[in-house]
Amino acid sequence: MYLNTIAGRTYNDLNQYPVFPWVIVNYESEELDLSQPNNFRDLSKPIGALNPTRKAFFDERYETWEHDQIPPFHYGTHYSTAAFTLNWLIRVEPFTTMFLNLQGGKFDHADRTFSSVTQAWKSCQRDTSDVKELIPEFYCLPEMFVNHNGFTFGKQDDGSEVKDIILPPWAKNPEDFVRINRMALESEFVSCQLHHWIDLIFGYKQRGPEAVRATNVFYYLTYEGSVNLETMTDLVMKEVYNMVFLFHSYNQWDLLPYLQRKCQLRNNDRFSHERCIIHGVFIVSYSYNQRDLLPYLRRKCQLRNNDRFSHERGDKENQIRNFGQTPLQLLTEPHPPRSSVMHLTPMMFSTVQDDVCMIMKFLSNSPVCHVAANTHPAVPVAAVTTISCNHNFAINKWNNNYQQQGTPSNFSSTEKQDTQVKLPMEMDQLLVMNNFDERIKAKHTSFITTADNRFLFACGFWDKSFRLFSTETAKILQVVHGHFDVVTCVARSECNLNQDCYVITGSKDCTVMVWMFTSRNQAIIGDNGSMEHPTPKATLTGHETEVTCVAVLAELGLVFSGSYKGPCLVHTLNGDLLRSLEAPDGCCTPEIISVSREAFVLVKFDQGQICNYSINGRLLQRVSHKDNIQTIILSRDGQYIMLGGNSGVVEVWRSHDLNLLYTYPPCDSSILSLALTHDHKFLLAGLGTGCLLVFNIDFNKWHHEYQERY
């Protein structure tokens, strides 16, 4: 996405929409083996050159092309246009309405409507007029494959009705297809050759002799600076350009009879749909007489617009709309290949780690209800924050130089090894917070720490406030009032060091409030600009009982909240209610909400029910756990779930199907809180006996690339 952005591609412009590659070539097998290279596309070739027969056709077209004004090209179509993007997203509003506007108020013929992933791939390999690449939504938006709105797209020639997208046999549902597609995109097979595709789309193979050798030359009007209509002196020629551009923005197929008629008169040969429709508008008109086309185009435009076309309307914007736009050329030299993680850290050199790395016992003996690990080396003081149920807290320094036992620190045998054994964490003194409402039981969602470990937010005070503490002195820095009852839970958005973040609070008054914490002022700043009496950025309503849990996903601007014997509500950060995540039968009160960047929501209800929802509210999975789960966290990539409860067992689950992957040895008390270090090598657990356990964890051993079969 970064390359798309700096090359001028954006979600705000359908004509220059972000482009992603096809990476899988097997869309017919019942099972997809991601460990087999033959299931992956050769990214060193453009989509039009993967089929040798089709490549030979394009090479011959380029070599035999003869025209004074139009340079030779391999492809008359493009891999990304507004029409192609809208065709991919035709089942999702507002793209449906935009597609209808593009097509003059009606859907395209059913046989040309996107209806099957397998057929779309085959078309990209067989049809000489189809060289489409993908869009990012193929890797993140399962809703694009389902006709939720019940649009009528018609019937194909074989009588089948176009409804939902027909997925490959190896995909159980749209969510499964998107997940596997993304796994393939992020696999080592793709990572090790992705630089070749970057060279084709954004790099040195985009233009010039290297593009010719790579069979990667597109119609000249798709390249930046190819035509400047403002400098054209022939007004008739300019109007032909403009008319054709404008005409393409309505319905290209209306032009087919006219072009075929003109071609038959001149060469007694019926042109194919590809030449007449896709690039034939220009090729045919230029190959014969462009001026002959002008009266027809003007007449058609007047019929549709009731307006005589002016020279200024068909500028470069219409050119991009209809013929696609090649991104800016970012690189003039080959993009360096990505270093493979599998090559740099082979698993053969890794020994099996003990499950338990360290046990730390606090003198207070109070249950450790909150653990936060801000251990990145960039943090001024890398530390693990622990808070107990009696409101004592400690900032325990983390040792980032700790070397796991059995793992070589250097492959060179000449360096001396440090014989001194160091533990990953050092215990710090306990500090105390006061004035809490004794009716509110301290839990993991009662506290949050800032990314730099300098400040701590706490809720549950009798005066209906939540407070900001200094972690160095336990001094109260700010008391924030806003709710009309006791604040029951608090959460913050993820942020980098020294970055502002959102703070979300839930209360017994049935409301959720959004606040802004600024790193510059080191305090909550209200919309009124005041630090002494800040006001919330938004107040979220809709609950009828006390709020039990909150979560926030700032990247998408969403706030999630649950209430006692009520639903989970999804709001925007501005306070708009979007939808409700209704509890399934047998589920009553949402107690824990955990949100992944991969756009799914994990909700733990009472009675041990754990539900996985899509970001748009669809229930994906549901399981019942025999333990009373107290804490749930997700890995950064959202693929794994760690949870613990009263049984004292920490479990690792796979998120997409909620299957158990691993169980750690049972502890002697309940698990109240969990946290992961920044490098995802250690899992920290707060126990009911006042202990902190440090587990070794290695997600690689559960990754699909290290399994014999996916």
TrEMBL record:
InterPro entries in UniProt: BEACH_dom, BEACH_dom_sf, BEACH_Domain, NBCH_WD40, WD40/YVTN_repeat-like_dom_sf, WD40_repeat_dom_sf, WD40_rpt
GO biological process terms held by the UniProt record: intracellular protein localization
Gene3D superfamilies according to UniProt: BEACH domain, YVTN repeat-like/Quinoprotein amine dehydrogenase
Organism per entry: Mytilus coruscus (Sea mussel)
Domain BEACH residues, every copy: 1-263
GO CC field: cytosol; membrane
Top-level lineage group: Eukaryota
Protein name: NBEA
Start and stop residues of the WD repeats: 622-663
Pfam family, one: NBCH_WD40
GO MF term (any one): protein kinase binding
Keyword annotations: Repeat, WD repeat
